[in-house]
């Protein structure tokens, strides 16, 4: 029997803190299991698969089983998608560096690169929620993640501001320890956005069934 009143709220808060920390630990274990290079993508995908369950109200879903099942099932595709996306980001920031060195950051080329980086960041926020939610072709994950972000501009802006605050204000290990909390927040936002753009028919889902039932 769960306590009521203030004690019930404290119990719920404590329960969620332990859930978040537990998922953080699993993410770290999954990342290290793949030697970081091959573990980052599937570990992040598995974390978002669990967070998606929580966002759908299934807070009693078996975290350990769900995490490692998703980790193994999505190992190859998550790695391919993750490193393609990281390489794309590397090219963008390399271009930005070149533009700044040549002193043309304020010109039209600089504006194009800055715009591309903003779109890249929006896509990065929603890439894994889309990946664990839908069965799509590789390039469609990128397009759909961007559409999900653009479908809810206010929510996306708030998430961008949170990222900025974490990167420039918060220091130490706190951002790392909050990664699973971040995955839960983004999953809640993305589920609403996916429903919105699905209703408007803005993209075609390859498989109408959910990727992670």
Explain this structure.
- This protein starts with a helix and ends in a 14-residue tail after the last helix.
- The model is unreliable at 204-209 (pLDDT under 50).
- It has helices spanning 5-33, 40-55, 63-73, 75-101, 108-133, 138-151, 153-168, 174-177, 179-199.
- It contains 9 helices and no strands.
- The protein is mainly α and 213 residues long.
First CA to last CA: what distance? 29 Å
The number of helical segments is 9
Helical percentage:
over 70%
Strand content: under 5%
Rounded Rg: 18 Å
Taking all residues together, what is the mean pLDDT? 84
> Got a strand count?
0
**What is the 3D shape?**
globular
What structural category do the secondary elements indicate? mainly alpha
Largest sheet: none
- Low-pLDDT regions: 204-209
Taken in chain order, the helices and strands follow as: HHHHHHHHH
Question: What's the SSE blueprint?
Answer:
Layout: H1 5-33, H2 40-55, H3 63-73, H4 75-101, H5 108-133, H6 138-151, H7 153-168, H8 174-177, H9 179-199
């Amino acid at each position: 029997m769960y306590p009521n009143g203030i004690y019930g709220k404290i119990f719920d808060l404590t329960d969620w803190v332990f859930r978040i920390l537990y998922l953080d630990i699993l993410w770290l274990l999954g990342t290290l299991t793949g030697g970081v290079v091959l573990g980052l993508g599937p570990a992040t995908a598995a974390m978002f698969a669990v967070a998606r369950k929580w966002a759908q109200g299934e807070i009693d879903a078996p975290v350990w089983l769900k995490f490692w099942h998703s980790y193994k099932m999505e190992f190859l595709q998550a790695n391919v998608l993750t490193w393609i996306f990281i390489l794309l980001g590397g090219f963008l920031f390399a271009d930005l560096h070149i533009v700044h060195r040549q002193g043309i950051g304020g010109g039209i080329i600089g504006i194009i690169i800055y715009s591309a980086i903003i779109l890249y960041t929006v896509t990065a926020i929603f890439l894994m929620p889309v990946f664990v939610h839908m069965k799509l072709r590789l390039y469609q994950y990128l397009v759909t993640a961007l559409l999900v972000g653009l479908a809810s501009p206010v929510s996306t802006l708030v998430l961008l501001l949170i990222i900025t605050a974490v990167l420039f204000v918060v220091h130490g290990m706190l951002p790392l320890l909050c990664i699973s909390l971040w995955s839960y927040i983004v999953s809640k936002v993305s589920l609403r956005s996916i429903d919105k753009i699905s209703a408007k028919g803005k993209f075609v889902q390859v498989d109408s069934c959910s990727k992670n039932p």
